[in-house]
Amino acid sequence: MYQQTDSPETFLGHVLGEEGGFLVTFTGQQARISHGDARLNELTAIRQRSWSYPDKAQDAARYLLEEAAAQRDAYVGVHLFREAGNRLAANAAPTARSLWLDEDEGTYPEIGPQPTAVVFSSANRRHLYWRLTQAVTIEWTEAMNRRIAIWAGGDTGKAGAASVLRVPGTGNYKRHPRVDLVAMEITHTSPWEPEIMDQAVPPLNEPPRLSGGVYDGPELELAQFLEGVEVLGEVSDGLGKKLAIVCPWIEEHSGGDRSGTFVGHRADGGLWFHCNHQHCQGRTWRDFRKMVHRSRSVSVDLPGYTGPTLNVEIRYDR
């Protein structure tokens, strides 16, 4: 069963829920409408606006319909922002109520959790949404969106919090003079528990990229660096040992999310660290090693020394 609707306001309520923040609308006109030799999907006269949500949702919906009536493509941020004026990832609201997928040329597997809403951006393109039973951190949302996109062969570039997607009730002028009407179906599937989505969608098995080639440094054991680190379990990895851990920078994660952080020992000997959270982007094994302060005690045997045994603690801080 499903309900078909062309209401932007219904779409916003379904995807964003009652979370508070700023909604971003993004509109533009296809250059080919006024210049026949322009490139396909080249937008001109771009307008980006912010709206207080949810109190200005109706005004935003009306504006999007007006823009579409003026032969302008209309998009909306499918995640809220903390402050008005930009849709940078750093400005993203800390929690979300839905997951999303731009299916693009891929196909979402039928065996997966069924979306709670489907937006037909054109005759052959769909955007899928999964409303959740509770708010989740934006880092978890982005990681799950990416997993879903890879599983479906969809657009991983639309997995992030700054993504904008088309709005039901508007027009897709990309193939002008042909116009595709953007429509939406609410499937009446119940909102999903985040844990169910996490269990149903295959995890990513892609190891983080390491700079350089084969590791040729001294032999190191991963266990030496895990004292004081909470290990959640081992994860399947074809290139060596991989562990899911609680990030040492968890206090910087929005909502204190404990997922999405890994360390590992490559089969060739190299050690690595990777965290999917926005606050940890760019942090490497060297940063992890400094943070956990690996230390090691060794006994010192000095010729001629007859006093008590000397123990020296060696700490690796960089």
Written overview of the protein:
With 318 residues, the chain is an alpha+beta fold. The chain folds into 2 domains: 3-200, Alpha-Beta Plaits (2-Layer Sandwich), CATH 3.30.70.1790; 222-316, no CATH class. Helices cover 16% and strands 32% of the residues. The chain has helices at residues 8-16, 57-69, 138-152, 194-200, 285-292, and strands spanning 3-5, 21-30, 43-53, 73-77, 95-102, 117-122, 125-137, 164-166, 171-172, 180-181, 183-186, 231-234, 240-245, 261-266, 271-275, 294-300, 310-316. The protein has a 5-stranded antiparallel sheet. The chain has a 4-stranded antiparallel sheet with strand order 3-2-4-8, with helices on one face. It starts with a strand and ends with a strand. Mean pLDDT is 83; it is low at 206-219 and 312-318.
Helix-strand blueprint:
Elements: E1 3-5, H1 8-16, E2 21-30, E3 43-53, H2 57-69, E4 73-77, E5 95-102, E6 117-122, E7 125-137, H3 138-152, E8 164-166, E9 171-172, E10 180-181, E11 183-186, H4 194-200, E12 231-234, E13 240-245, E14 261-266, E15 271-275, H5 285-292, E16 294-300, E17 310-316
Antiparallel strand pairs: 1-11, 2-3, 2-4, 4-8, 5-7, 6-7, 6-11, 9-10, 12-13, 13-14, 14-15, 16-17
How would you sum up this structure in a few lines?
The chain has 318 residues and is α+β, with helices and mostly antiparallel strands.
What is the CA-CA span between the terminal residues?
A: 59 Å
Q: Which CATH class of the largest domain?
A: Alpha Beta
pLDDT averaged residue by residue: 83
Number of strands: 17
Bin the helical content.
10-25%
| Fourth CATH level, the homologous superfamily of the largest domain | RepB DNA-primase, N-terminal domain
- Number of helical stretches of at least 4 residues: 5
SSE sequence, one letter per element: EHEEHEEEEHEEEEHEEEEHEE
Bin the strand percentage.
25-35%
| Unreliable parts | 206-219, 312-318
Number of domains: 2
Strand order, largest beta sheet:
1-11-6-7-5
